[in-house]
Specification:
This protein is mainly α. It has four helices and no strands. Helix 2 packs antiparallel against helix 3.
């Protein structure tokens, strides 16, 4: 088998071109890696801004349950009051954590729900 015979200058020119292509490819890979890192950082930042996808907040449900326990008719042992007070305190702590994780989506959902509740009350 006979191959293509190149002169010394052609070989140098091809070698220089291959070296240039290799350097270009390495730069492109670095740029692509930086773009992926930037996209991941943006995604995690937006997740904090957007908020959670949960429809209802746990703290509100806990608070409602606590108020039910606190408004039961007088229990001679006081167990319902103790449970209600503990549940109410826990709901306040959970609400503080939920507010830190609250994003735009959660705020919109919260204010829409407040608007609906106010509309029902003012009828």
């Amino acid at each position: 088998m006979e191959g293509v015979v190149l002169t010394k200058e052609e070989s140098k020119r091809i070698a220089a071109s291959l070296k240039e292509i290799t350097c270009y490819a390495k730069r492109e890979v670095k740029v692509a890696v930086k773009a992926v890192d930037l996209a991941n950082a943006t995604k995690s930042s937006l997740k904090n801004v957007i908020g959670t996808k949960n429809e209802s907040m746990k703290a509100e449900r806990m608070e409602k349950a606590a108020l039910i326990f606190l408004t039961f008719p007088g229990d001679p042992t006081g167990v319902t009051y103790a449970v209600g007070a503990t549940l109410y305190g826990t709901s306040k702590a959970v609400k503080a954590v939920e507010r830190k994780e609250m994003g735009i989506r959660d705020l919109i959902r919260y204010y829409r729900r407040l608007g609906l509740e106010l509309g029902e009350l003012l009828k």
